[in-house]
Design brief:
By secondary structure, the chain is of the alpha/beta class. The radius of gyration is 19 Å and the shape is globular.
Length: 287
């Protein structure tokens, strides 16, 4: 495994994280195929990438020829095994359900060569459990990107118990190759970033629930007082309240009551107020 020799990648899952990962791979000169079970989802993902790149050109942050080169390296597919043939890395960005991920990795393990790096973008689920679905678990690693992928610099590289040194090194080097700053983390519930970020987010929700301050002022306290680029409640809206709830429930089981979801989070998810993707969360996002 050598990150410098990766010239073809597959990203499974064409949602917000998946299309963002495909975009940064293509911008780094790596041919990237975006795969989903729904052709319409694939096209929406590719359209979002085109929109992001066009905005970069409009703002003077990206040269038009660089945009065109990235777009030429992008493709879409609904055929997983066919797309994965010949790839040197596959990065999974499907919904945060363990059974979905283990089934996917078992398929990838059976349909790719033993030297292909298999990475999961999960933000909290056990990499070791995902790797256990494979006959060659040593090539499985976590590569946890952050939203929006094309702007956020961090990638959390998570070593499962089975991850080989070669696979971890390849993932770290790949993150650097695509312009990111990786951190090296051992597989544990919530890793480093989700565990820290969720504590702050859940406490912000409790403060809102108790009437300590408005969502805007709680967020402003963290942005202006602590230098956060975005407040924890606005960030929760971008991540998705349903995603945050699932992670909180998982960590409360694995670590303890500090991660118990507050009632306001459960109630909003039950009402379908999932954040930006639904138009309402802790903020109004419009249509």
């Amino acid at each position: 495994m050598n990150a410098a020799q990766i010239h073809r990648a597959v990203v499974v899952g064409a949602g917000t994280m998946g299309h963002g990962i495909a975009q940064v791979l293509a911008q780094a000169g790596i041919a990237a195929t975006l795969v989903d079970i729904d052709a319409a989802c694939v096209e929406r993902g590719l359209a979002a990438i085109r929109s992001n790149l066009d905005k970069g050109v409009e703002k003077g942050k990206l040269a038009a020829p660089d945009r065109d080169r990235a777009l030429a390296l992008l493709s879409g597919s609904v055929h997983l095994e066919q797309a994965a043939a010949g790839a040197q890395v596959v990065i999974e960005a499907v919904p945060e359900r363990m059974e979905l991920k283990t089934d996917l990795f078992a398929r990838l393990d059976a349909s790719t060569a033993a030297g292909v790096l298999l990475a999961t973008n999960t933000s909290s689920l056990s990499i070791s459990q995902i790797a256990a679905a494979c006959r060659t678990p040593e090539r499985v690693v976590g590569m946890h990107f952050f939203n929006p992928v094309h702007l956020m610099k961090l990638v959390e590289v998570v070593r499962a118990k089975q991850t080989s040194a070669a696979a971890a090194t390849c993932a770290l080097d790949l993150a650097r190759r695509i312009g990111k700053e990786p951190i090296d983390v051992r597989d544990s519930p919530g890793f480093a970033s989700s565990r820290l970020g969720l504590v702050i987010g859940l406490e912000a929700m409790r403060m809102l629930e108790q009437g300590v301050a408005s969502a805007e002022d709680i967020d402003k306290a963290m942005v202006l007082g602590y230098g956060f680029p975005m407040g924890p409640l606005r960030l929760t809206d971008l991540v998705g309240l349903d995603v945050r709830l699932a992670i909180a429930e998982y960590l409360s089981r694995e670590i303890g009551p500090n991660f118990q979801p507050p009632a306001i989070l459960r109630e909003k998810v039950a009402r379908g107020e999932l954040g930006k993707k639904s138009g309402r969360g802790f903020y109004e996002w419009g249509t």
